[in-house]
Amino acid sequence: MDSHDKDLKIFDKKDFSKGKVPTKNVRDRWKNTNLLSSLEFALTGIWTAFKQERNMRKHAISGVIAIIAGVFFHVSTTDWLFLFLSIFLVFMAELFNSAIENVVDLAADYNFHMRAKRAKDMAAGAVLVISGFAVVVGIFVFIPKIWQFIFH
């Protein structure tokens, strides 16, 4: 249990019996009440992914390498757009994948279930598909530049 889970209230079905619902201040404790709290929750999620997900850090390193290569090879504005699109789509897919994996693990109580495995495999497949797109973009952007650098 994480340190921030110590005041966690787990609701049971009986908490909602006879039309009872948790009080507004209990429900709102984890809600975004304004733009700054929304931003804080979002940044916390991104930071958590970087800290806890090895693949997120690998994607970040790949993105930094692509940016450095783009600067080195002086890529065009259109190429920059495709590079940034690829980098951010991979990050987004990895964030979704991590979120899905965490929710599935929670729902399955860390036990093996074939449906849980399928959900996690599909989420990982989405990351693979968009990573393949990023590789194709990298090939289109950098292979001509590398070829020109080596042979001219």
Task: Tell me what portion of residues adopts beta-strand conformation.
Answer: under 5%
Question: Tell me about the biggest sheet?
Answer: none
Shape: elongated
- What does the oligomeric state look like here? single chain
Q: Give me the secondary-structure category.
A: mainly alpha
How far apart are the first and last residues' alpha carbons, in Å? 59 Å
Q: How many DSSP-defined strands?
A: 0
Number of helices: 5
Query: For the CA atoms, what is the radius of gyration?
Result: 21 Å
Helix content: over 70%
Q: Can you give the mean pLDDT?
A: 88
Order of helices and strands: HHHHH
Low-confidence segments:
none
InterPro entries: DAGK, DAGK_sf, UDPK
Transmembrane segments: 59-75, 81-100, 121-143
Protein name: Diacylglycerol kinase family protein
Keywords: ATP-binding, Cell membrane, Kinase, Lipid biosynthesis, Lipid metabolism, Membrane, Nucleotide-binding, Phospholipid biosynthesis, Phospholipid metabolism, Transferase, Transmembrane, Transmembrane helix
